[in-house]
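Progress against Task 2.4 (sequence-to-structure conversion) is shown through the following example record, which the project officer requested during the mid-term review.
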Amino acid sequence: MAPLKFCANLTWLFTELPDFSQRIHAAAAAGFKAVEAAWLYDCEPGELQRAREDTGVEVVLINTPPGNLKAGDLGLAAVPGRETEFRQGLDVAVNYAKALDCKRIHLMAGRVPVESHRSAVAKEMEAVFVRNLSYAADVLSKEGITGLIEPINTRITDPRYFLDSPHHAAEILEKVGKPNIQLQMDVFHWQIMDGNLTQNIQKYLPLIGHVQVAQIPGRNEPDSDGELNYNYLFNLLERLNYQGYIGCEYHPLCSTEEGLGWIKNYWTCNKQ
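Structure tokens generated for the chain above:
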């Protein structure tokens, strides 16, 4: 069984440092060979590119721009009436991905509008989502980039997020029918919404293009106190021959470096 590949999420880790280029260097110094981030768009791509080249670290995932965060946006791909903004944001994300040689973009679905009830707009939002994903698939295929959709739990993290279960995500992917649009599994969200992780991982593994991890309920290091046995889950992914990356998307309990004992033990055991 091949060892798992981990990447540091620079939006959550190494936040002791003010900018992403410094965090890339810190991640490399800590032993990471790959990084991911939500939104890098406050940084010039050239600066990030230099940091990537200086360290040899691979950038494996970025998100599409969220829209107007202050106005309550968190992605636009499923939001009716925002199709033009979604396409503009996709172009920005693709430009950054090309500059960083990043091969995965999380296409954020977005939130149910404040004035709307989920059940009343669900069909319209799904139709918009499918159309936007189909459009994105064609754009991304020209650049050799994979698009990802991620269910985010609506019980704790974001009650208005449109896409909130792996089952719904799988239905969306079937309707889109494009091989370069895949599923992003954040174990934190899947456990909160559905549990049944072993069966869901086995069922949906053929659709999964990226994984993210954090402990439940505090969203801290995988080896911190909580509901999940990550030794079991990592062994499961190894047995299933998962070949993608696992993003470390969690809140460190202390400093980032102090909380990396779990992954350094994994690297030592697997001689990485």
